[in-house]
Structure formats: C-alpha cells, structure tokens
Amino acid sequence: MSEVVIYTIISLTGLGLIAAAILYFVATKFKVFEDPRIDQVEEALPLTNCGGCGHPGCRAFAEACVKADDLSDLHCPVGGNDTMQKVASILGMEVEERDKYVAVVRCAGSLEYRQKTSIYEGAPSCAVAASLYGGDTGCSYGCLYLGDCVKSCDFEAMYLDPVTGLPVVIEDKCVACNACVTSCPKDIMELWPQGRKNRKIFVACINEDKGGTAKKACEVACTGCSKCEKECKYDAITIENYLAYIDPEKCKLCRKCVDVCGSHSIHEINFPPRKLKEDAEEAGARGKREKRSAAASTDTAVLEAPPAENVDVVEMAKARRLKSREAKENNENNESE
Amino acid sequence: MNAFLKDIKTFPLGGVHPQEYKLSADIPTEKLALPKMVSIPISQHIGVPAKPVVNARDKVKVGQVIAKNEGFVSTNIHASVSGMVTKIDRVLDSTGYKRDAIIIRVDGDEWLPEIDQTDEIKREISVESDEIVKKIAEAGIVGLGGATFPSHVKLAIPKGKKADCLIINGVECEPYLTSDHRIMLEKTEEVLVGTQILMKALKVEQCWIGIEINKADAIAALKKMCVQYPGIQVQPLKVHYPQGGEKQLIKAVLNREVPAGGLPIDVGVVVQNVGTAFAVYEAIQKNKPLIERVVTVTGKSVLKPSNLWVRIGTPVQELIDFVGGLPEDTGKIISGGPMMGKALNDTEIPVAKGTSGILIIPSEEAHRKPMKVCIRCSQCVGVCPMGLEPYLLMTLTQKELYERLEEDQVLNCIECGSCAYTCPSDRPILDYIRLGKKTVLSIIKERNNKK
Which of B78, B180, B318, B370 could form a disulfide with B172 if both were Cys (CB 3.0 to 4.6 A apart)? Predict the structure, then answer.
C-alpha cells in the first residue's frame, strides 16, 4: 500500500520537474525585453486609468513616456505637475510646469429660467435625447438635465443639482480628465484654467441664436449684446454668432464684465462676496482721502481672504436674483405703507 | 379564393402585426388651401443640404429652383408657392433642431409656364433613359416612403452591377398612414406610367408592385389596369410589419436575400415607392418638380381624418386646422407613422418631402411606460426582421462597447422598432440602438479618413 503512495509521489514530482524545466527553457528562450522603467513610471502614476492623458490607461501612458524623446506632449492631468516631475526624474528628462484645469458648466439655464416645451420620456441619456431633438426646453443648445457628464465622471466630482437640474462640478475632486467634455452631446462642459486662487470668470451660455430668440428660450441666455466686449480692457472677450466668449488666457479677473451683463450670463466662481452698494455710498459720503484708504484696505482684505468655498454658479445667480427681488418687494412694501 | 390566398407572400423572419387603424383609407384626397407663409428647409433629403440660389426679396414662381444640389448625393429644392422670399433663416424642422430654410410669403399662385397643370394622362414616353435620370435629379425627387434618399442616386446603377427588375413599394405597413393607398386608388394609371418610366430608366423588363392585402381595392384597381402595361405585375402581400423595408420587401416578393451591409442592387433589384413613381410621372410627363405630396392627417380623436395634397413647406398647424383643430386630449403629434415616425415639438414645423403623415395621438396612449429590467424573454430577438439581438445591442451601447457593436452587426438594423414595440418590460431598445449605430458609423468614418 505504501509503495503506491511512494510511486505516486515520485512520478508526480518527476512530472513537475520536467514541466518546470520546459517552462524555464521557454521563458528564457522567448523572453520579451521590457524596459524596467515602464514599471517604475507606472508606479509613479495615479493608476486611475481614466484616459485623461489621451492614452488607453496608465500603462500605455507609461510606455509612451518611456518611448518619447521629450515629455512636452505628455501630461497626466490627474497627477498634475508633481507626478510629471517624478516621471521626469525617473526618465532623466525635464518637464515644464503646466496649469491645472478644472471643468466648468457653460450653461446656467436651470429649470427656473427655461420653460419646458415638451416632455421627454425616452431613454434617460443625454446622447439619446440629443439625437432625437434639441431638448425639452426652447433652447436647443442648453443642458438636457439627464446627466451623461455625471455618469461619465470616474472621480465623483460631479452631481446633478436637484433644484436647478444642472450638473455641478466639485472643483477639489475634478482632475480635468476630459470625460465629461467628451460625454456631453451639447458641448457644454469645458476645461478651464484653474486660475489665480481658483477664481474663474466665464460665459455660462453657449446659445448661438439671435439675442431675442435666445432670451425668449432662457432668461439667462447670452444675447451677444457686446456690452461686456466694450467693457473689457484686455480684449479678452470676443463675440461670435451672438455669443460672448471669454479667453481665460487674457482675462485678468477684474469682474467688470460680470457687472455690465444684463442677462447675468457671465459667472464668477470663488470670488469673495462683493461690497454692498450702500457701504460704497457711505464711503463716498466720507472724505476723499478716507475713501481712498478704505478702498485700499478692502483691496488688501480681498487678497488675503481665503478662497471662498466652491460656489455653484447657479446658486450665485439665484442669490443675486433673490436679492434684487427682495429689494423690489421692500420698495413696493414701503410704497404701499 | 384559395388560389388568391396561395399567391400571398411575406418575409419569413420576425416582424410584428400592430393594429392597423387605417381611419382615412376611404377618404379621397383633397387639396389644402395655400398657406400665407411657407418655410422650405434646404435639407429635406439624405445627403448634402442644397445650396440656396435665391436671396431675400426675390420673387419666385411655383416650380422654380430655389436651392441647388451640392454634389451627387443631394437634390434640388423648388419653390412650392409663388411669392416673395422674405428671408433665409434657421427654422425648427422635424429633426428637432433649427436648420436653414427659405421662407416665402405667398402671393397668388403663379406657376412656371413649362409646367403642365392639366389632369390629362400622358401615356407616351418620349424621353431616353439617360435623360430620365437627369430629369429626375433636376426635379428634386427623393424616396417618398420616408427615407428621402435622392431617387436619381438609386437609379444610377454602379459599374459592374446590373438590375434585372424593379419593385414598386405600395406596402404602407405603418399603421394609420394611407397616403400611398390613396395615390394607388386615385392615380392608378399615372403610377403605372411612372413605373414604366422607371423601368425604362433602369432598362429592366420586369416589375412587381407589392401591396399588402388590407388594401384590396388598390390591388384590384392596379391588377385591372396593369394588363395594358407589359411587364408590370401586382404582388399581394400579407399584412406584416415592417414589410415596407426594402430588404424585407425583396425577400417577400422575389425570395432574394440582400447580403448584410449590401444594397438591393447587389441582388439586381431597385425598389421605389408608389409616391415616388407618381412624382416621376409628373416630373417626366408634366415637367412638374416635387413641390407637393399627399399627407395623411389622422388620429383616433381627430374630427375629420384626411388625406391632403400639401405644398412642401406648409406649417403643420395648417393641416391640423383643416382636420378640425387639435383635439383636447392630444398627447403627442408625430410626423410619419406610429412605429418609425418622430414626435414633433412645435406645430409650426414645415411639411417636408418625407412627411408622409401627421398623426395625433391621444394623451392616454402617448406616454411611455416606465422602463423595467430585461427579463431575458428574447421576444425582441424573435421579432427582429434582420435577425439581430436587440437586447444585446442596447446593453453594448449602454456599456459603450462599440467594437463589439460593430461585430454584432448593429449597422444592419433598419430601425423598424419591432423590438421596442414587443418588449414586455417597455425598454427603450431602439433609442439605444440608434445611438450605437450613429456612434459606430462615426467611428468607421474616422477610421476610413485615417487610411
């Protein structure tokens, strides 16, 4: 009986050894040389496989980095400059610092501002809806409220605001991987330079219809009135097809355009709250010198103020509207009294 | 009777049989009064949009070319009314988007002198084969069944291929629609002459007119008349949706199978709609371009379901007014039939060359039921007339697996909607397949551009 066990052990061990020898031979004979730096680079990457760099996954990006002569065309938006520095040091190359980008929603036409003209009951996907028609509101450029961008985001950096219906970007989580930009059939999402202190000013509208038509479809549509274009000292604003566009490279974040925009379609993000008008008037009542010093002090205060929390563009517009409405109601009340 | 039943053919694979509701089948066509304003889209056909050749404040006459074809797969657009061009502007059309259209303010009804407006039937065909195709291209004729593919492209047979027969599509398998039915009844002889012209253009000797047996009067009328026209036969077909699809019709009539990704010409067949045959008759014999068509305006709660001769560019609102206004319980207005038509989101949308019907659906029928999970019953697979697996194509589109979609023949889908119609879980299968098809097409185009 014990003999059988011994023979079995010996024969199986023998088989195992033969197989090991064959495998060893094959592995050495057909070995594919792979640059060990690929593994090193891959380890330095965030390994999210988001495709934001334009390569199918982090491994492919690492291969591209190792193969490339210089790193000028390659950038990992998720890891940012730190990761690229690490990659460069592994490969012994130099890499330039790049601006960080963040996605912005270029539509402010919330459910409040746009009239529904039809009811969409098809598949819950923006891409399907857009292939059928312009959308369930009068504006055929605006957001469809079905959240393809939110679904496409791998970093949980977006959500649909239940009140406005529009998507909101959580800037801290956004890695500028471009997924929302490609998933939006209306091209509403755009990657925007993060800007000084995360501050951004952009036109939250992409409606290219004539002013009147656009305004009829949406209260906060850009009409292309060119007030902002005239106001801007830095030539950052261009108007094309009845639509203003702010060049983030040229914009100096002075906020003058925001003030002149009659339809509130230019949005500011992460700016500290403005000084109220009454305060300014009071200051004006005081002496000139005093005023100047007061202004100077507020300016420094602005610079030192911590960046405001991610304020939703639509929230801001809404707050502004509410304020004006309240003021109007107060006036009416006063009059009636 | 038995012999008659034995003669009835159909396609073997899949298909459904929705309730027919041909409410306007016995109602003769009427001419709709001229509207005050028409907006004629420059893109009413598959292919490149035509290029406007008129400017604002130009005076135009009926039949005058107002937009010229751009390239081969494109076609001319003619003024359907006389009057003054007010502007060329972006107008909401049946795609649901604003696109360029020529807007004409109607003034009188002055036709170009060369157009023969009499009802007299001209049987003699005096034009040569090449000339016919050229004239059809000039007359702006497109497939009037709904696909609006320029007819002259279909008639220009590519080198190395040969057509041996023509099929005239009088199937009208969509429920509710009766415009082709009325044309066959009222313009029987004109359709036959038009068919002969098409046969001459294609140089074929044989032609079948396929008609479903729910149009027995049309079958009888054409059978009686076609004795005088050698080569033309009438083929009765079983009522079976989507028999109006080219590939299904060829399979039903001739039992020939168009290969996957192929065209009917690969099996030696050209298919044209009866409406197209009539338009061809008018273009060749009467010099009249495609400026009006029959539109069925119908619906269960519509006061007066009608078949109307409508000038291209007339706002849909005018048609609705004619049939007694929009019923109170309206839930949806569809351009085309209930299976493949498209919901309109405005009643000012103009009638285009491909508008075969305006269907007004009451609200209790208009809404979709909420989507439930797929229960793997495979009914969609059973009814797919192209032998595809619709549930799978839908899932692949949702998961964005476009390579597998291409492998699984998504491009062969004819978008007939049988799958979504039959789905017990009310899943929007066709919505997703259409999206997948569109995406795969753009991927293929990109790939070919790279090469």
Answer: B180
List CB contacts (< 8 A) between B97 and chain A: 133-134, 140
Interface test with B, best of A116, A125, A126, A133 (most B CBs within 10 A): A133
**CB distance from B429 to chain A under 8 Å?**
no
Instruction: Please list the ranges in chain A whose pLDDT falls under 50.
Output: 283-314, 317, 335-337
Residue A133: which of B96, B371, B435 has the nearest Cβ? Answer: B96
- Comparing alpha-carbon positions, the chain A residue that sits nearest to B438 is A131
What chain B residue is nearest to A117 in terms of C-alpha separation? B345
Token representation of residue B336: 């085309």
DSSP codes joined into one string, B323-374: TTS--TTEEEEEES-TTT-EE-S-TTPBP-TT--EEEEEEHHHHSPPPP---
Residues 6+ positions from A175 with CB-CB distance below 8 Å? A48, A50, A52, A77, A78, A155, A157
Asked if B432 lies within 8 A of A128 by C-beta distance, the reply is yes
The domains of chain A are located at 36-91, 101-320
A130 and chain B: CB distance < 8 Å anywhere? no
List CB contacts of A334: < 8 A, sequence separation 6 or more: none
CA–CA dist B318, B316 (Å, integer): 5
Phi and psi at residue A318, to the nearest 5°: -65, -45
Domain A36-91: which topology? 3-methyladenine DNA Glycosylase II; Chain A, domain 3 (1.10.15)
Residues B54-69 have pLDDT tens digits of: 999 999 999 999 999 9
Distance from CA of B154 to the nearest CA of A (A): 27
Alpha carbon B188 to its chain's center: 19
CB within 8 A of B383, min separation 6: which ones?
A: B14, B15, B16, B418, B419, B421, B422
Size of the A and B interface in Cβ pairs below 8 Å? 46
Interface test with B, best of A115, A116, A131 (most B CBs within 10 A): A131
Q: Which residue of B has its CA nearest to A148?
A: B398
Supply the ipTM of this predicted assembly.
0.87
Asked if A128's CB is within 8 angstroms of B435's CB, the reply is yes
CA distance B56 to B62: 17
User: What value does the mean pLDDT of chain B take?
Assistant: 92
Can you give the pLDDT at residue A298? 38
Query: What number is the average pLDDT over the span B317-329?
Result: 93
Smallest Cα–Cα separation from B405: which of B377, B447, B433, B445? B433
Residues A246 and A236: beta-carbon distance below 8 Å: yes
Which residues of B, range 273-292, sit inside 8 Å of A by Cβ? none
CATH number of the domain at B2-25+116-286, out of 3.40.50.11540, 1.10.8.60, 3.30.70.1230, 3.40.50.2000? 3.40.50.11540
- Helices then strands, each counted (H, E), chain A: 13, 8
Say what the alpha-carbon torsion angle B195, B198, B204, B205 is, to the nearest 10 degrees.
20
Torsion sign (Cα): B374, B379, B380, B381: positive
